[in-house]
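Re: calcium ion structure - here you go.
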Amino acid sequence: MVWLMNGTTKIASDVIGSSPGTAWHVEAAADFNGDGKADILWQNDNGQATVWLMQGLTFLSSVNVGANPGPTWHVKGSEDFNGDGKADILWQYDSGQAMVWLMNGTTVLSTSNVGANPGSPWHVTSNDHTAATSISSILADTSIDPSSGAHASPIDQPFLFDGHLIF
Ligand SMILES: [Ca+2]
Ligand SMILES: [Ca+2]
């Protein structure tokens, strides 16, 4: 369900789409296709992420995002990390490792671990700009294959987070 708000006043609400079932959880609302309108990011209990592209309260289409990384990876939020106007996806693994998938719409462009693993007691709790800033100045040193979870070759140049990626 979406409530359309004017400030803190609810001006309309509507149920959107059909229920995908209890295994699916809304994780974030962000603009994936750059049309200025929020879309909805879901994750299934089995790990699969899916985006509902939206036109206001109208459901347009449902697209699986990338390969399923498995149930040990958790979508933690969505934020435009590289400033291209399209939402990216922030993940955290059970071990504590954070990862960002840079997206072009619903297509995964690249995946990179974010910084060193702080350990399993650490949990990403928010995807707002404060959280993006809180992981600023962390070097990302490896990339990861979302299908296998295996570390791939190190990226050529480490990048710094400062709300956005700086290459
Ligand atoms: Ca959109
Ligand atoms: Ca982006």
